[in-house]
Design a protein that fits this description.
The chain is of the alpha/beta class. 36% of the residues lie in helices and 10% in strands.
Length: 251
Amino acid sequence: MSAINRQSPTQTPPPSAVVLLSGGLDSTTLLHYLRKDLGVNTVFALSFRYGQKHARELEAARWQARAAGVAEHRFIDVSFFGELTAGRSALTDAAIAIPRLEELDEAARRQPPTYVPNRNMMLLSLAAAYAEARGVADVYYGAQAQDRYGYWDCTPEFLERINALLALNRGTPVVVRAPFMTARKADELRLGLKLGVDYAHTWTCYAGGVQPCGDCPSCEERAAAFREIGIADPLAAVGPDEERDCRGGRP
């Protein structure tokens, strides 16, 4: 767990923070890390409809925001972004199949079909505007080490440069933070379980549906993390009532 930048007992936690909350394993762990480990009293959570193919992850985000006791949880509709990037991403274009991880060759892993053009830059820009308007200095997002195989906007270089851009603010610059950036999913799971995170109410699968597909790159990474720490993924064993909790319509 050394790859996660945990709070020192002598450090003062930030009074407030904005977190991007997708409802997946990474952002959910991050949310509870802010509330329970860093001790941030006032957390504002932002979830985005950016034109993704399903709303399962957003329903999970709603559940987790309530469980963490956030000050405000907002769903922001930027669904036009899916149309704007049509033809490029398997996450937003129904005509593009979601690949299996084993189908991606070395070139595809550098920028896989599941990449959404400039998504993180857009979402972080909106989060920074929201934070600045509320006098919040810190924006957090759940980039982690395993994402770096294909997503340039989850790298230390991206984080450094977006913060350099935000530092041009002549008032009070907002700082983007990614404490899991050098961590692996197994590291996050170990931390989240210590914090009491309920991973049955998260959603990782790119395909949506009632149960995870088990084949997409995100499902495979999640499954590998649970295998590494030696416990079963609770999402694979939920009952019908729990399935309906995350299935509803658009939040």
